[in-house]
Amino acid sequence: PEEYALLPGRRRPTNYNYDWVIGYYNTQDNPDIEKNLSCWIKAGELHLGHIEELLSINSRKQEVGFVHILMDYLGRYLPAWLSKHPDSGIEIPTNIEDFHRSIFWNRTSKNAKLNNPKDNSELDLPLTLMQFYDLKRSIKTKARFIFSIWRYFEVAIANGNVLMPNGEPLVSGLYKNPIHPDLDSTGSGSAGKSNKIPLPIDSMLMV
Hints:
Layout: H1 38-51, H2 57-84, H3 101-105, H4 129-136, H5 142-158, H6 181-184
Helix pairs in contact: 1-2, 1-5, 2-5
């Protein structure tokens, strides 16, 4: 099912709102996908309002594009994956606080495998959002992607008491941001070789 991560989405309107979601992810086999995205759309709207004056037009456009990758993961990839793995025990995170780091964001070698608590069998796991990103975009912008998704969650958590149409808060409970930019970013890589000619040690001025 990882091939679903490679499918390009239909072109989205350039205006910065989430009206484009209507009819964007629903399919004939699963016509109710977008009902699962209401909290994420609300968080996206709050995020847009937060960065409107904070970022330049180009930086804002880039960050919105990164959030679209998150929406594609939730609205396109996960439903497709779950249709192939109905017994995985994994559910689409319809609420912000259901987005668990080790399942949906980043898995290390220590938590690469999860077991079903009922019978201790190994669970099938979908790609994480970090892995999904790797199939869609360049490693050169990954650190920026990580920071942008971190900010999206920070805005959602800061506005967690905003009520949804069903009367529930946007984020309930003591939910911590699953994104850790300093830990999740791979850094800029090793330093390249210098093209400077080294001076002999005995030619250096000692002070």
